[in-house]
Amino acid sequence: MTDPITCPECQGDRGKLLGGLFLACQFCGGLGWVGGDNEPAEREAKPPPPPPTASNHPVWSDPWIAAAFGCRLCLGARKLTHVDEEAGTLITVPCRCVAD
Questions:
Q1: What is the pTM of this model?
Q2: DSSP state, residue 9
Q3: Beta strands in 1-100 (DSSP E)
Q4: Quick one: where's region Disordered (predicted)?
Q5: 59, 77 in Cβ contact below 8 A?
Q6: I want to staple 12 with a disulfide (CB 3.0 to 4.6 A). Which of 32, 42, 65, 76 is the partner?
């Protein structure tokens, strides 16, 4: 650990103001200083866990959401679209809820 110093990334400004939106500095976490307990070099380099898939998102436990959208995959559109970036194509297929 080191003594607290002014953040070298934001120079103590804590982030950037874009119109009415304030974006906190990612290096110091919006504090404007680093060191002590706020030492970026000592943070674990382990990436965060991936987010849940859309069909397994916790929002589906809300009965109002589950009732409003019958299908978790297509959200009632009855078709699914996939962008194949490698081939440069857009593929649309009927959702599995259409067959049910």
A1: 0.40
A2: T
A3: 5-6, 15-18, 21-24, 33-34, 79-84, 89-94
A4: 38-59
A5: no
A6: 32
